[in-house]
Design goal:
Number of strands: 15
Structural class: mainly beta
Strand order of the largest sheet: 7-9-15-12-13
Shape: elongated
Strand content: 35-45%
Largest sheet: 5 strands, antiparallel
Number of helices: 1
Oligomer: single chain
Order of helices and strands: EHEEEEEEEEEEEEEE
Distance between the termini: 12 Å
Length: 171
């Protein structure tokens, strides 16, 4: 019996950085960039032309922390009892600095009857760029090989689950 389910709704890949995320994009100046600014005004008083210059003001660009996770595998057909079913996600650093992102996953989503079981290991870095789980992929180890992404850099991640034997169609 086939059980069709959108894995982007079933397998949630949660990422955390030091701060939360928002609608920031890595456009513009990198974090820590110093911007110096001086204002100048030219004016006339009667027949006298003059120019005045302000003091220089320095501003340091603040770091924006943000990440976007998108499912690259829209849905996966599964059968009861199958093992090592996979979903590909793309993790993009949309902040303006280099960040290490801690990856965690959950297969249990409230409100449905379908709870796949995370495989061991459950998260792989798609190090060979194949877009699926293959021998060239590296198992992710929290605190070990955490992806370090510069602004606008991406890493593809494969999440792997086993399907319970007792799952029924439409769960």
């Amino acid at each position: 019996m086939k059980s069709w389910r959108s894995w982007s709704a079933v397998c949630a890949l949660a990422l955390s950085a030091v701060f939360g995320s928002g609608p920031a994009f890595a456009v513009g100046s990198p974090a820590g960039t110093v911007i110096n600014n001086t204002a100048e005004v030219t004016y006339s008083v009667g027949t006298v032309n003059a120019t005045a210059t302000s003091n220089m003001v320095s501003v340091t660009v603040a770091e924006i922390l943000d990440v976007v996770v998108t499912a690259q595998t829209p849905s996966v057909a599964v059968d009861a009892g199958e093992t090592r079913r996979e979903v590909l996600y793309r993790v993009t650093n949309t902040g303006n600095g280099t960040e290490a992102f801690l990856l965690t996953m959950t297969s249990v989503i409230a409100g449905d009857q379908f709870d796949p079981v995370p495989a061991t290991p459950a998260i792989y870095l798609d190090t060979d760029g194949s877009g699926d789980l293959s021998p060239g992929d590296t198992p992710y180890v929290a605190g070990g090989n955490v992806p370090l992404l510069g602004d606008d850099e991406v890493v593809d991640v494969v999440v792997v689950n086993d399907i319970p034997a007792g799952v029924a169609d439409t769960q």
